[in-house]
Amino acid sequence: MSVLDLFPDSARIEQGELEVGGLRASELAREFGTPLIVYCEQTLRARARAYRDAAPNALVVFGSKAFPNRAVLRLLAEEGVGADVSTLGELEVARRAGIGGEKIVVHGNNKSDEELRAAAEADVLYLVLDAPDEVERAAAAGIKRALVRVTPGIEVDTHEAIQTAHRGSKFGLTPEQTIEAVRLGTSLGIEMAGLHIHLGSQLLDLAAPRMLLDWLAGFVAVCRTELAWAPAVVDVGGGLGIRYTEDEPAPSIAEWIGDVEARLARDFAAHGLPRPGLILEPGRSLVGEAGFTLYTVGVVKEPAEGPPWVAVDGGYSDNPRPLFYGARYEALLANRATEPSDRSYTICGKHCEAGDVLVRRIALPHPQRGDLLAIPDTGAYTLSMASNYNVLTRPAALLVADGQARLIRRRETLEEILGLDAP
Ligand code: LLP
After folding, report:
1. In 279-412, where does DSSP find H-type helix?
2. In CATH, what is the architecture of 41-287?
3. Which regions of the chain carry the CATH code 3.20.20.10?
4. If you average pLDDT over every residue of the chain, what do you get?
5. For a tag site, which of 140, 152, 235, 345 has the least CB within 10 Å?
6. Which part of the chain has CATH 2.40.37.10?
7. For residue 160, is pLDDT > 90?
8. Ligand 1 closest atom vs CA 380
9. What's the farthest any 2 CA atoms get from each other in the chain?
């Protein structure tokens, strides 16, 4: 395992330089500027196909919050993937990407009436009910088919901010409220098609899908007794983590989904229940490894204590994950990729905040002003969570394949941001 393995599938080192999709990092930086998020088409397609191969009969919808981009949604749609959306904005991105309502699942823990109506108008496959009072509101808005998001009370091993299925979670209904919601929805004429659970994100332990399916089969057995109802479909959310660092392996899509499939069949059969249809909502594991961020190195300096600082032309505003979740990344000096490292450096951004650190203590070949620094595995939850802190413009994104680069999101301009203030 080397740092290059953390980059997209098409990544190579050619004449000492990082190349992805047949294009050199320096060519991309020259033409499109930095910071720049570069997506590899080959990797995106490979991850979508891995889901399809592992669960050929499941509906896979992309957790679009990871990177709600029209071109990416369109590309994934070519591989049979639909969209999981959680706001009016994400729904609109999916619609403009040409995703039909029959491949859209709508989430949200606090949906507005406008969002409920938009979901009904788009005739989405399922609205996922997330609150007791949403059942009547959804019926009034014209929703025809729904799932209920149930909170199983399972605590998963991931950062606290991205755990979603513990008893105190803001998401979902308690098992008792879920049973009531199915009863009420049915009486209001909504087709109550099934149940949804999403345990959390960046999960690296196969114990998670095991607990989920085990709990779900038990709960469905209770539903059958109480309601004479069983879900025709179960949506087990997303959550599969990716490998961000060399020392943190992640299960493969095949392993994770293979486990889900096997347990769905076995755990439901153990309760004498028919096997329901399956929906999967991967976000990070579809797009995370496909993207990397390219920065230009500016100041390199030596503090009185600790490793030298290497400052890049972005930071917290294009990747808040280190500060939010203590996320760890690796880095490669993209234009001098084969030079031996001389010591450890800390990569920071240009924001007025001491916590604006992207990578701590990484061995690099003495970076210098003008070098290109590439951080892998930034395809998910970076640009989608980017901000304009310190009035920085948000970066552009590219899709690369076979020596061709396509701008799939242009760089924000300063005028666009300045135009928001009253003159
Ligand atoms: N389905 C639902 C209902 C979700 O809430 C999410 C993510 C997903 C699917 C996709 O999950 P994934 O496969 O990407 O783990 N900003 C955080 C991650 C937040 C995840 C929110 N929900 C981060 O940067 O780690």
Report:
1. 284-287, 321-325
2. Alpha-Beta Barrel (3.20)
3. 41-287
4. 96
5. 140
6. 3-33+290-418
7. no
8. 24
9. 70
Please report, to the nearest 10 degrees, the dihedral formed by the alpha carbons of residues 385, 386, 387, 391 taken in order.
180
Q: Identify the pLDDT of residue 363.
A: 97
pLDDT, tens only, 371-391: 999 999 999 999 999 999 999
- Quote the ligand 1 centre to 72 CA distance (angstroms): 17
Tokens of 23: 């294009």
Joined together, the tokens standing for residue 313 give 């032309």
* Residue closest by Cα to atom 9 of ligand 1: 238
The strand pair at 126-129 and 309-312 is best described as: unpaired
- The span from the CA of 155 to the CA of 45, in Å, is 32
Is residue 352 annotated as a catalytic residue, yes or no? Answer: yes
Whose Cα sits closest to atom 16 in ligand 1? 381
Query: What distance in angstroms lies between residue 63's CA and the mean position of ligand 1's atoms?
Result: 7
Q: What integer pLDDT is reported at residue 411 of this predicted model?
A: 98
Which class is domain 3-33+290-418?
mainly beta
Number of Cα atoms under 13 Å in the Cβ half of residue 369: 3
Ligand 1: does its nearest atom lie under 6 Å from the Cβ of 325?
yes
Residue 1 pLDDT greater than 90, yes or no: no
**What is the per-residue pLDDT across 304-348, written as a single tens digit (0 to 9) for each?**
999 999 999 999 999 999 999 999 999 999 999 999 999 999 999
Beta-carbon count within 10 A of 234 CB: 26
DSSP letters spanning 403-422: TEEEEEEPPP-HHHHHTTS-
Say how many Å lie between the first and final Cα of the chain, rounded: 54
Asked if residue 29 has its Cβ within 6 Å of ligand 1, the reply is no
Instruction: Using the predicted structure, report yes or no on whether residue 46 has a pLDDT greater than 90.
Output: yes
pLDDT at residue number 356: 98
